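Example 3.
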Amino acid sequence: MSVHRGHGAHPSTAVLTRGFDPRLSVGSARPAVFRSSTYVFASPEAAERAFNLVSGRATPEAGEVPDLIYSRFNHPNAEILEDQMVPLEEGAEWSIVFNSGMAAIMTTALALLHPGDALVYTVPLYGGTQNLIHDLLEPLGIVCRPVVAGRSAELDEAIRTTPNIKAILIETPANPTMVMTDIKRASLTASHLDPRPVVMVDNTFLGPAFQHPITLGADIILYSATKYLGGFSDLLAGIVLGVSPEINKKIRARRGLFGNILQPDECWILDGRLPTVALRMNRQSKNAQRIAESLVHRHEIRKVYYPTLFDDPDQIRVRLSQCDYPGAMISIDLHGGKAAAFEFLRNIRLAHNAVSLGGMETLVCHPATTTHSGCSAEEKDIAGITDGLVRISVGVEDWRDLLRDFEQALERVAVTVSEK
Ligand SMILES: *Cc1c(COP(=O)(O)O)cnc(C)c1O
């Protein structure tokens, strides 16, 4: 199914010109949706060969394209999407699509880690990933060691001294305070070990437009494609990208076993979103920067968390060295704690009070009682999640309307909280 027209072109060209051959879809300019669970073989010999290839008992000859068998293993819309995603992630050689970000992360972890192995990871992590570690990986006998995001020397130390370390999981910027972890430094430290642990980066917040972890030495990129890649808050999906053919094989084998491949309709929808992800993210980042830099002077706000407003010199260095643009996530810490945060949420008019992020519409949430409600007081303290913290995912609306909306909500907060 896949063709490689557009190989070598820039990402914005390649995403529109590779991976899809109209001749295989009766000439249609956009791919058809292949809603079939199973595929017809040309002969019993072809069926036998296809099973030998998918099970790994045989390897394809040069130029041989394995026949499709059954949609839990592979299907045309997954192949097209996977091929078109690759050029968006600089340095990636392959991608694998899943039916959620969590499915992508879980399947990758279970493909690479076995009882007795160790994982070093940055905190805070996305809540679901944190639960995966505590509720599944640790009970399986995988040793999981946290390091606070942004503490480069501590991360180096953990990588060097954790016995049987097989993988490192970095989420940067960290949610919700945008603390950044130096991907290049961690990858370099990993390279001094033999065998080298696999460096995995959850790139959901800034990728694929603004942060390119493979060029910084990472091996595997994880996405919740539910967020910026999907972009419209209307589907769940996950993508893993990487370079090593062995890792590709291992993760695909697990996906075939678990049955968590992304379904054809969702593949088709997501596929149509890829050519605009950089356009959307650029607009969202510009909007967010204008808003963050305007809110910084408001007396109702104790602190605005946004990459261009970092004051720590090392954080500024990491941002400048690994992010092209600051992105569209802002957190604001309000004076007046939970009451002020809730009053702010009650009074916003254009933005919606919802979790998730990366969509066209602006979403605002209160991490302490929602996305991070499962964290202990100590974990919240380390992650900077106060009762007054509100997280904003900025969309593509006009930034001036959004700013006016936030300002009027802040004025309501000032009135209500001072009345109490
Ligand atoms: C949303 C999210 C996930 C989980 O993705 P789902 O698509 O919801 O399963 C993982 N990591 C990060 C950083 C996320 O924001």
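The domain at 282-419 is CATH 3.90.1150.10 (Aspartate Aminotransferase, domain 1). Residues 100-102, 126, 128-129, 171, 175, 202, 204, 224, 226-227, 236, 238 surround pyridoxal-5'-phosphate (CB under 6 Å).
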